[in-house]
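Side project, low priority. Logging it here so it doesn't get lost.
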Amino acid sequence: MEIDIIQNNINELENSSTSADNVMELASLYIVKNNLKKGLNPVVSELNDIFPAYNRYISVKKEYQLNGTGDDIMLEQLKLLCQEIKEFLITLYSGTDTYKERRYISNTLSEVNTHFNSI
């Protein structure tokens, strides 16, 4: 995530109306911006991308549930959230040093996959 994009989003939100969603989004962007400036490790940076994507998804989902938007917009936000989660998991896996760590992550993902396939 580029810092200019984050700053542009911060500027837009600071100049928009005050709402709970806007405040949550703004707080998330401030956290991400500060962490990027500090040069946190890649896993933390990826983890910090998830929260803003989740907030956007939830906001659009609420609008969808109130028949304010179509499911295509809501699904696009879900797709972006899933992309952030995938990037986090890949970065987490890339930072492992041992076979046991990698196996644990792989087993966890298999368990999640099994859970979803059993629903």
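Brief comment: The first helix runs from residue 3 to 14.
Revisit when time allows.
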